[in-house]
Amino acid sequence: MQGNGFKLFAVGALLVISLWQLFPTIQNSLNNRDLASMDPAEREAYEAENADDLQATSEEALKLGLDLQGGMHVTLEVGTGALLRELAGNRTDDTFDAALTAASEQAVTSDENFVTLFANAVEAERPGTRLARYFRNADADITARSENDAVVAYLQEEVEEALVRAEEIIRQRIDRFGVTEPLIQRQGTSRIVVELPGVDDEERVRELLKGTARLTFHLTPPTAEVQQAAANLFAYYEDGGEDAEADPTATADADTTATQVASADSTADSDADSADVLDLGDITAGADPSEEAGGNPLAAVLQRIQVDPSSNSPIVGQVAESDTAEVSRLLAAPGAARLIPPGVEFLFTAGPDAGVTADGDGVHYLVAVNQRVELQGEVITDAGPDFDPYTNAPQVSITMDGVGASRWSQITGANRGKPVVIVLDDLVYTFPTINERIPNGRTQITGNFSRQEVDDIVTVLKSGALPAPVSIVEERTVGPSLGEASIKAGTRALLVGLVLVCVFMAIYYRGAGLVANVALLLNVLFIFGVLASFGATLTLPGMAGILLTIGMAVDANVLIFERIREEMESGKTLKAAVDGGFSKALSAIADANITTFLIGVILFSFGVGPIQGFAVTLMAGILTSLFTALVVTRLIIDYLVQERGVNVAFG
Amino acid sequence: MRIFENTHFDFLSSFRSSYIISGILLLVAVVSLIYPGLEAGIDFKGGTEFIVGTDTAIPSTQAASALGDATGEIYEVKEFGNPETLIVRTAAGGDADALRTSVVNTLSSAFAGSNPEIEGTYSVGPRIASDLKEKAIVLVLGALFVILLYIFVRFDWRYAVAAVLTLAHDVIIVLGLFALFHNLTPFSLQIDQVIIAALLTIVGYSINDTVVVFDRIREYALLFKTEPYAETANRAINTTLSRTVLTSGTTLLAVLILFLIGGEVLKGFSLALLVGIGVGTYSSIFVASPIVVALREKYAPARRVVTASA
Question: In this structure, which topology does domain B47-124 adopt according to CATH?
């Protein structure tokens, strides 16, 4: 047994470390079980009392992946195109627009970064164009004569900075939202990955992440002009709008609208069979589908509100929530867009503040505003939740800096009796009529808000505006029940697999099989210990990896035991056979495990998310199973054979 | 207990039939990879997938047509483990916000009392999908290359070539199986990131198995220098047979458990492993060794030629 002292120490140390590392995990799951058995009031009191302890154990416990505990994984992409447009200010032209479109298309498949793609697209569009014509900027030393390389470098720097800033802002917003252990990190040149364990209010998070928080104050165009434009738009679509044949998408859309209307009709009067037949007859007779919808696609989705031209009201009409996209599409059609006066845009209100439709769909106003921005969110120094003193409705109150306040005082002073429109991320929140000059820069944003919405608006306003719009390009949410089902299925498979393998080994190798089983059980303990001490996250594929390791872990022992059998058959004593078996099997064990380990390394370096989880457990499993097979089994067999003189059976 | 003790199977002569078996398997695999071809999951194609829990069972075909009628998009709907859980897929990717609402609204109005609830979402935009696809290809090729290199260093180039050909054989057969059956199984057999991980694990397992046999061939080649190489290989396979079958047995047992009770999410993954481990075990005996023998006979190492002429 000499020379085994170190091995014994190593096994003991690893055992203690593993148990130590796993202790918080066990504690945590016991806590959770206790908490689940309490009634809500008791639970709340207990949680409040032991908040620190509970948090400490849950932080030190083995982390579960989103697929097991539920939560949200979102990849956001920062809109580089929009950022370039902003940097170019109003110096854009057709070449710029065409290049931006081309670059966006190429970006889908290309590895190049967006700025390079854009620069190449500009060159392709109009060779020899100096990028500096769009991006002159005294602060960055970009003059009209700057070389394209210098401009590209400047733009790349700006994009990088925007990404860093976007990450920072999103971090602040998430922090205020209050998620435990969120993960926020940049990925590549334009993406930000956000992982929020345990979050189930997905919609709210999505709004919080995407909101650019661009707050602007606008005045409204003369009401008479707006009413005239609205009349023209309805007349335009009354006459058929875009040439239906020339625009296949328009007909397709009209078709689906017609089917929807038709099916809604047929369910409405299901007792009148003859009416259904009649409806069908009409359609098959080849009637123009748009006539089914009343002949005017705009009137079908937008209910016009005619107001007295002297009233100063900016309201154009009202739209059901589900129809807002269709209205935007109809208004943006080239023929229709011409009819909207220059410098005016039509925006929807944020909250459903015009009541609800018969089937519970919220109705929004369509409001005309001047595109010109009178005042920007940058002037805001503070924002906070507040209540309307008369109605007690939640509202957001904002405070402006000196420059903002004096400008705000000017605007409100000069436009008494007219509405001022407060727009956040292209949605109209409020358009109060100015009663008097507001001298101190303090203003309220009212709307059809819930208390929670007010908090979220305050959060985005306080963390500042995103440098460029972000969009969600990948999203993975796992609800708590799905996660729980996965944990159950995974744990059960793990236990059943472990037991079956152990039974098999005991039957096949008898005494030596039992020794291998001790090693196997220690191996599973060590894997979890290693995972916990490296702060790795256990995912469902990770659990699969552990089960696979259990199946493969016996391999090293099988190789050794088979060798020992061979040695014994050649007439050696048990002791010599054991020595020979271990040393001769070593080369095969090493080669077999190194190759599999290399695969784990590759999976870990190039894979993402759950695959990395799988790779980590696979690698951890290989290391621990090598250790248990070569050290633990050896120690036990040596002890039994040499110290106790037991005639260990190898099957 | 002992199985395959002191076996003297003549693998040498069965190599001929294994060429035929592998040839047929590869042919079927390659043909089904061309038609019907693999079905890319949303990881590599972009799209959105919802797991929808309902109070009452909704027939998946009816759900698909209701969703299709309401939106004009094509929806694929399958049962997810039990009739009260559906997996709903559509091609639109990225921002799943509007889709989610429309799926819940359509299902709840089309199937009264079903009370659908979204339990999970997975949505990938086209840009991410193309990135992931590229990564997956790099991953598989990278793994094969690293193994080629390792075996080349530890053994020699004949073994390395044989190992990589064997691995390609295994990967193609498993992929072929996915192509052939992806329309027929009740669970998903789409190729996604997790399946790529499974493929690499198969590569890892298969090479593990192959290397053990190689190791023994190399060992016996030094012991029985005058024996024809094919004999040596045969002897090596026979002596490692017990271990090969045993390890495959325990691993298959573990993976079978995973397939049967490991949950719906891992069905495709564990099936890939199940088939892959079976094929990998077969190939390390019947594919890898004959290739080594053939290469060895055709391109004998210099040292052996010297021994022979001495």
Answer: Alpha-Beta Plaits (3.30.70)
- Same domain? For A404 and A332 the reply is yes
Same domain flag for A423 and A364: yes
Torsion of CA B241, B243, B245, B249, to 10 degrees: 180
**Is A83 a domain residue?**
yes
Query: Does any CB of chain B come closer than 8 Å to the CB of residue A403?
Result: no
Q: Which residues of B touch A202 (CB under 8 A)?
A: 121
Expressed as residue numbers, the domain containing A148 is: 74-212+473-477
Instruction: Please indicate, yes or no, if residue A251 is contained in any of the structural domains.
Output: no
Answer yes or no: pTM beyond 0.80. no
Question: Which residue is it, tokens 């209307």?
Answer: A261
Q: How do residues A166-182 score in pLDDT, each as one tens digit? A: 898 888 888 877 777 78
- Count interface pairs A-B at CB distance under 8 A: 233
Best to test chain A binding among B201, B207, B277 (most A CBs inside 10 Å):
B201
pLDDT digits (tens, 9 = 90+) for A538-584: 888 889 989 988 888 889 999 999 999 889 988 999 999 999 999 99
pLDDT for residue A267 is more than 70 = no
pLDDT score of A273: 35
For B:68-127, CB contacts with A below 8 A are 69-70, 72, 94-97, 117-127
Query: Residue B303 has what pLDDT?
Result: 53
Please state the separation of Cα B91 from the chain's center in Å. 25
Q: Are residues A621 and A508 in the same domain?
A: yes
Q: Is pLDDT above 60 for A533?
A: yes
A608 touches chain B (CB under 8 A): yes
Tell me, what's the pLDDT at B274?
Answer: 95
Chain B CB contacts of A260 below 8 Å? 70
One of 2.40.37.10, 2.20.28.10, 1.20.1640.10, 3.60.130.10 is the CATH number of B11-40+129-299, namely: 1.20.1640.10
Domain ranges of chain B: 11-40+129-299, 47-124
Q: Which among A72, A83, A88, A73 has a CA at the least distance from the CA of A466?
A: A83
Mean pLDDT of A424-449: 83
% of chain A with per-residue pLDDT over 70: 91
A602:B254 CB<8 A? no
Q: Compute the nearest-CA separation of B309 from chain A (Å).
A: 31
Closest approach of B132 to chain A, Cα-based (Å): 9
DSSP A371: S
Q: Which residues of B touch A203 (CB under 8 A)?
A: 97
Which of B95, B123, B108, B97 is CA-nearest to residue B67?
A: B108
Do A357 and A490 fall into the same domain?
no
Could you identify the residue written with the tokens 């106003």?
A365
Question: Cβ distance B104 to B118 under 8 Å?
Answer: yes
Of A406, A440, A465, the position where a domain reaches its end is A465
Residue B302's pLDDT is what?
59
Provide the token pair at A543: 């659990």
Name the closest residue on chain A to residue B117, using Cα atoms.
A479
Q: Which of A415, A444, A477 is the last residue of a domain?
A: A477
How far is the C-alpha of B133 from the C-alpha of B100, rounded, in Å? 25
CA-closest candidate to residue A189, choices B131, B216, B27: B131
- Verify whether the Cβ–Cβ distance A479 to B119 is below 8 Å: yes
Cα Dmax for chain B:
89
ipTM score: 0.90
